[in-house]
Amino acid sequence: MIEFKPVKNEKTVISIRLDTNLLKAVDDLSVQTDISRNELIVQCIEYALSHLK
Q1: Does the pLDDT at position 15 exceed 90?
Q2: Is pLDDT above 90 for 35?
Q3: Does a structural domain hold residue 32?
Q4: What is the DSSP letter of 4?
C-alpha cells in the first residue's frame, strides 16, 4: 500500500477586476455547482490553459 503523505500546495493571493456581468455569471455558476467562486475560477483557468492551441 502506498503511504499517504499530505502536501500543502503553495498558493498566492491575487486581485482581479471583472466586468460586473462576468462576475454575476461566475457567481451564478458557483452556486449551481456548489463550489466556491475561487475554486471555480481556478478550475476555469486550468481548463483554459490546458486547452490552448
Answers
A1: yes
A2: yes
A3: yes
A4: P
Domain that holds residue 38: 20-50
- Residue ranges of the alpha helices (H) in the chain? 20-33, 37-50
**Residue 47 clears pLDDT 90, i.e. is over it:** yes
Count how many Cα atoms sit within 13 Å of the Cα of residue 26 in the half-sphere of its side chain.
17
pLDDT in tens, 16-28: 999 999 999 999 9
Q: Which three cell numbers stand for residue 44?
A: 476555469
Q: 14: exposed, middle or buried (C-beta count within 10 Å: 0-12, 13-18, 19+)?
A: exposed
Alpha-carbon dihedral sign for residues 43, 49, 50, 53? positive
